[in-house]
Amino acid sequence: MILRRVIDHVRRQEWTAIGIDFVIVVVGVVIGIQVANWNESRREAQRAQGYLWRIHDDLAADLGSLARHEVFWRQVIEHGHQAIRYAETGQRVEGSAWKTLLSFYQASQLFPWISRDTTY
């Protein structure tokens, strides 16, 4: 339809009408491109928000894991202090050889921490 009008205007040499038709086509293309860009921006913002929520969940899981590890490491440190106290002074843990031996064993424990990085 637009092509027929443009061809008709060219045959009659109506340059003003040709210019108007050209401007209408250009404006239509520019508006179409702008709408596509807005849609792409909106999709990118939604994707970014999704990644932020996933990172937030990963970090929350890491904080919980670190809290559990901190409790464990504090216990290991306390057992280490008890083992060192026995090595330096001969004082048994609560007077028990078994608990003293257990302190040496518990002081050697390792609970490695690995961050949750599924989003990265």
Features:
120 residues, mainly alpha, 3 helices, 81% helix
Structural account:
This protein is an all-alpha fold and 120 residues long. It has one domain (2-107). The chain contains 3 helices and no strands. Helix 1 (2-12) crosses helix 2 (15-89). The chain starts with a helix and ends in a 13-residue tail after the last helix.
Please report the distance between the alpha carbons of the first and last residues.
52 Å
The percent range for helix content is over 70%
Strand content: under 5%
Which overall shape is indicated by the principal axes computed on the Cα atoms? rod-shaped
Low-confidence stretches: none
Supply the number of helical segments: 3
* Rg of Cα set: 37 Å
Mean pLDDT: 88
Query: How many domains, as an integer?
Result: 1
**Main beta sheet: strand number and arrangement?**
none
How many β strands by DSSP?
0
Helix-strand string? HHH
Structural class: mainly alpha
Report a brief summary of the structure:
By secondary structure, this protein is mainly α. Helix content is 81%, strand content 0%.
Question: What topology emerges from the helices and strands here?
Answer:
Blueprint: H1 2-12, H2 15-89, H3 97-107
Helix pairs in contact: 1-2, 2-3
